[in-house]
Amino acid sequence: MVRPRLIRLALASTALGLCACPSDDSLFDDLEAPVATVTYPVDGVVTNAGGLTVVGTATDERGVAAVAVNGAPAATTDGFATWRAIPALDAGTNALTVATSDGFNPDGNAASVSVVRRAQFVEPRALDFDTVSGLVIFTDTALDGLVGVDTDSPFSNNLSGRSIGEGPDLDAATGIAVDGPGGLAYVVDGAAPTVIVVGLVTGQREQLSNADIGEGPELIEPFDAAYDALEDRVIVTDRGQRAILAIDPVSGDRSVVSGLGLGVGPDYVTPAGIVIDDSGRQAYVADEAGFVLTVDLRNGDRRLISGDGRGDGIDFATPVYVEYDPVLRLVHVSDVGLQALLFVDTVSGDRTVLSGLGVGTGVPFEEPNDLYFDATARRLLVMDGAVGAVIAVDVGTGERGVFTDFDRGEGEPLEDLVAVATDFEAERPYALEAGAARIVSIDVATGDRTALDEDGSATGPALVEPRDLAFDATGHRILAVDRALDAVLAIDPESGDRTVLSGSGTGSGPSLDAPEGLVVEAAGTIAYVCDDGLDAVVRVDLATGDRTIVSGSGVGTGPALDSPARIALDEDDQQVFVSERTSVAVIAVDLATGTRTILSGAAVGRGDPFQSVLGIGIDPERDRLFVCDPAADSIVAVALEDGARTPLATDRTGRGPILVEPRDLTVEPGTGFTDLVTGEGAILQLEPASGDRVLVSL
Asked: Smallest Cα–Cα separation from 578: which of 542, 526, 538?
């Protein structure tokens, strides 16, 4: 007879895709399910992807039969000692739960982590409301994409861009008009100049109207757009034409709506933002010359509403975008010059500051752009590209708060990041800000950022022009090279105290002259520096400060190190790898002979050529290097055997945030998990097999 307990466990195991078929009763002595851990990602990190590689371990005395994450079966090559799964992610916070079984004992909650999914954006600019989905659709001029955000919650999704959909890039998207029932967005690229139609479901992009597509007056400097549902056409402001144009959404043909001799009234000077009122017959246009007009869309007639001598109140400086309040019959205007929002009485033309300039508290505007009036919540949602956030503004009080952004952690935002070094035992990265010449400690658990010498009490010579960091795990200290001090320094990670280890007056040998990159041996006694002034690799004894050129002019043969940037160490084979900016290549240097050889570059190694090279790290378990290519917004894997280049993390490779100018990285020995920093001030963690990445701090 089959025991009732066996039936229950067999059914539970079947849920994991297993059949429990014990051959003897001794198996009933095993009452423990496999134990699991998640090694990637860290709990609480953020991604914009619909799926993510989860990596972990599992152990059991009788062996592990299956592992799954939120129902997604894990793959393994070693009996689940290590495993990986790719569960789907919903918008918002996702609990990723690991289920394990040994074929007899299942555990549906062996381990878990949480991951937040929301849209990545950097510089939100123009917006429109989709009446069908209920989303505010906005453009991101940094990531060349479209984002949708739910007005009932801060949850958001990337809809189109470099990694979503095919077609022309949305390079300078200053305007957008949404046809909700048609599922389309019409995006204005003023730089091209062109209007691009985007499928909101697929993210596919196609040219609609430009110099090569459509007849009629040419687009010179189009700026903003509005969808005219009554006439099924896209209305576009064009600063170059000083006119309002209509574009046929099928043919791309263009016709004049107002200006260029059509309609009477004040002339346009620099027409910018446009909105159509609830009648569908009239539009309001902000002109950056300092006024707001109303336009009759049937005959092109124009009437001055406010500014240029009409209406009382503060003068416009640079009005850019407009929004219409159908309840109070007001026009809301974003003014970049004033860094404020104004509302305009459409009858009198009077202007009143709604938020900014001392009205309302909260997140200050830096570059208020397009805005949406949420009548239900009585608030405005404002795009601020400089803040990098969608700001909610209470229309009654002017109070401002972040509605949604792409960030993680508390503390002063990171800027001009150039280097990262990680204490892997403590799971703590240290990021280097070049402009502020400061080192910031990152709490991986929360993303919180703390400057090492926040109160200025640390002792020792101040950093002036620091270029790179390395973490000495043996000595539990941060090492830095400073181009202005021409020195190698040690920084205490707790106190921030600084000590010169090698430089002027410390150590013998050739003086450092613009050191750029730094790497330290595992024992913590020797460091190697790539020096831009010496065009050399320098060995530094960290105990004495003594310096010896191991490769450079007159030492070793091979291609010159004209502009070395970063350096990685292969202790097993006693060689270093240098990213060299002049030749845009990775150069291998033999530490015994100083011989230099191009490992990977324009004429060496298969794969797409580097566009640039900067940060570099070694993944010895997989016999490859990871190289930052900031110009290509990518991380490239380089095979140590032949220099072959393979995209590891790009717009189209790996899931997660788009890399914006990745500058430096550090690779954890054994796992290959990689911490990296980007030009936008983000700390990301990279999974080395898939190229997936998550946001740790921003």
From this structure: 538
- Within 10 A of 458 (CB to CB), how many other CB atoms are there? 16
Question: Computed over its alpha carbons, how large is the radius of gyration of the chain?
Answer: 29
What is the rounded CA–CA span in Å between residue 219 and residue 254?
9
Q: Output the pLDDT for position 327.
A: 86
Is residue 644 within 8 Å of residue 622, measured between CB atoms?
no
- Measuring CA to CA, which residue among 420, 456, 437 is closest to residue 682? 420
State how far the Cα of 387 lies from the Cα of 367, in Å rounded to an integer: 7
pTM of the model: 0.89
Closest CA to 372 of 363, 364, 380: 380
**In terms of Cα–Cα distance, which of 438, 436, 445 is closest to 409?**
445
CA–CA gap between residue 189 and residue 194 (Å, rounded):
5
Instruction: Find out whether 148 and 136 touch, Cβ atoms under 8 Å.
Output: yes
**pLDDT at res. 28:** 54
For tokens 């916070």, the residue is: 93
Separation between Cα atoms, residue 54 and residue 526, nearest integer Å: 36
Those residues of the chain that have pLDDT short of 70 are 1-30
Burial of 618: CB neighbours in 10 Å, binned 0-12, 13-18, 19+: buried
d(CA 533, CA 514): 5
The residue count for the chain: 698
Q: What is the pLDDT of residues 338-385, one digit of tens each?
A: 999 999 999 999 999 999 999 999 999 999 999 999 999 999 999 999
Distance CA 698, CA 681 (A): 6
Q: How many helices and strands (H and E) does the chain possess?
A: 1, 56
